[in-house]
Amino acid sequence: MTEFWESSFIEKQTMWGFEPTDSAIVTKDFFLENNIKDILIPGIGYGRNAKVFIDNGINVTGIEISKTAIDLARQNGLDMGIFHGSVTDMPFDNKRYDAIFCHALLHLLNKRERDQFIQDCYNQLKPNGYMIFTTVSKKAPMFGKGKELDTDYFEVMEGLKMFFYDSDSIKQDFEKYGLVESTGIDEPNKHMKNTPSINFILVKCKKKV
């Protein structure tokens, strides 16, 4: 997966632009309402979602596998701690965070990696902390395309494997981690106005005391 993201990163950042996702904006509002001050963003990329949190006084630490992405974040003035590595190697520190926000990464992992990643995120939450994931839905137009590798898991294009969630698989993966709610959210491509939105599910969990 490292090679795929490094080789296509510049093209991807051009495609997505620098505006934050709607998911990040909604999550920022939720974090402010709940007095969240210190968050971890696994898969922070080049920081387009991090800025909306930083601009609202929330301290951000990131994890990113692509050195190119980290360099681009720095070039765009994002001064924050970013661990260079894969989320499958979490944790990178012993810190506990008020919250974790992870956009469009979970579905890129296989079953074993997803289970471990969710557990690792939960472990890095403070008591009563929140973790919020956005992950691709079975309603997305890419669902069922390409080579089927497992149930709801497809290689949609060469080197890009995706697991597509629905309400049942959300419950299965998150119920034991304090699942609060899951809601559909359609993410427009704000950088390319005439492209279709992607159907995501926003998953919110709270760590039990």
Model description:
- By secondary structure, this protein is an alpha/beta fold.
- Helices cover 30% and strands 31% of the residues.
- The protein has helices spanning 2-16, 22-33, 50-54, 67-75, 111-123, 167-174, and strands spanning 38-42, 59-64, 81-84, 97-103, 125-136, 147-150, 153-157, 160-163, 179-187, 198-206.
- The strands form 2 sheets. Strands 3-2-1-4-5-10-9 form a 7-stranded mixed beta sheet, sandwiched between helices. A 3-stranded antiparallel beta sheet has the order 6-7-8, with no helix packed on it.
- Strand 4 (97-103), helix 5 and strand 5 form a beta-alpha-beta unit.
- The longest helix is centred in the first third of the chain and has 15 residues, at 2-16.
- The radius of gyration is 16 Å and the shape is globular.
Distance between the termini: 36 Å
Helicity level, as a percent range?
25-40%
Order of helices and strands: HHEHEHEEHEEEEHEE
Largest sheet, strands/sense/barrel: 7 strands, mixed
Q: List low-confidence stretches.
A: 1-12
Overall SS class: alpha/beta
List keywords for this structure.
209 residues; alpha/beta; 7-stranded mixed β-sheet; 30% helix; disordered N terminus
Care to give the gist of this entry?
The chain has 209 residues and is α/β, with parallel strands linked by helices. It is 30% helix and 31% strand.
Which secondary structure elements does this structure contain, and how are they paired or packed?
Layout: H1 2-16, H2 22-33, E1 38-42, H3 50-54, E2 59-64, H4 67-75, E3 81-84, E4 97-103, H5 111-123, E5 125-136, E6 147-150, E7 153-157, E8 160-163, H6 167-174, E9 179-187, E10 198-206
Parallel strand pairs: 1-2, 1-4, 2-3, 4-5
Antiparallel strand pairs: 5-10, 6-7, 7-8, 9-10
